[in-house]
Amino acid sequence: MAGIFERLFKLGQSEANTLVDKLEDPIKMTEQGIRDLKNDLESAMRSLAEVKASAIRLKKEGDEQKAMAADYERKAMLLLQKAQEGSLTQAEAERLAEEALLRKKECEDRSNSVLSEYQNEQQMADKLQANVTKLKSTISSYENELITLKAREKTAISTKKINQQLSSMDSSGTIAMLEKMKQKVAEEESLATAYGEMAETPKSVDAEIDKALEKKPDVSESLAALKAKMGINK
Predict the structure, then answer these.
(1) pLDDT score of 54 more than 80
(2) How far apart are CA 93 and CA 110, in angstroms?
(3) What pLDDT score was predicted for residue 117?
(4) Percent of the chain with pLDDT over 70
(5) How many CB atoms neighbour CB 72 within 10 A?
(6) What is the total count of domains within the chain?
(7) Are 10 and 108 a contacting pair, CB within 8 Å?
(8) 212 and 165, same structural domain?
(9) pLDDT (mean) for 71-86
(10) pTM higher than 0.90 for the full model?
(11) Owning domain of residue 61
(12) CA atoms within 13 A on the CB side of 80
């Protein structure tokens, strides 16, 4: 029986761990999403570089073939001129000129084919460039949102902590404690006043006798002078 309970407990632990794993931290999820986007961006940048390199190569080859076609046409014209000048027979000049024109046609066809491929590669490069630009903008936007999210999380944690502290405070108990302190202070003040009055009260008969024998100031002469000033004879 104990073994069954142990197996059930372990199964419950496993399910709980799975549930916790599903409840992922949104900040960590955002950070992972940004890392994934950056990996996508690196891949897109590599693809863009490769396509651009291919387009540059095709454009260069197409231009070269176009230049070669123009050069073969120039050579065919020179051969015909030589026949006119008499340095070559007409038949030989025309034979070589035709060969040059064939080479020209081959170069033109090759140039057209390569430049057509170049146009396709360039269009692909433009699309990839747009994707790269969009990815960069998205990553920048998510990074800014992540900064805001982290700040909000910090504020939320601080606010929650303060609210938890406030909610756990026993207001009634605190007020009762303050009332007890007030009562105790009032009692202490009363005792202090009582002890002060006791200090002013004579503590022995000898003290009372000494107080009675204290010489009082003689004001009889002052009284007589005041009466004379006021015209009182008695």
Answers:
(1) yes
(2) 26
(3) 95
(4) 76
(5) 21
(6) 2
(7) no
(8) no
(9) 94
(10) no
(11) 2-169
(12) 12
Tokens encoding 127: 């699309």
Same domain, 185 and 141: no
Residue ending a domain, choose from 118, 136, 169: 169
Residue tagged 């503590």 (tokens): 203
Whether 81 and 188 map to the same domain: the answer is no
Distance CA 140, CA 146 (A): 10
Q: State the average pLDDT for the chain.
A: 81
Is residue 16 predicted with pLDDT exceeding 60? no
CA 73 to chain centre: 65
84: tokens are: 């006119």
User: CA–CA distance from 172 to each of 26, 146, 177 (Å)?
Assistant: 39, 43, 9
Does residue 120 register a pLDDT over 90? yes
Rounded Cα distance between 96 and 100, Å, is 6
Q: Contact at 8 Å (CB) between 118 and 129? A: no
Pair of tokens at residue 144: 């800014």
Radius of gyration of the chain (CA): 56
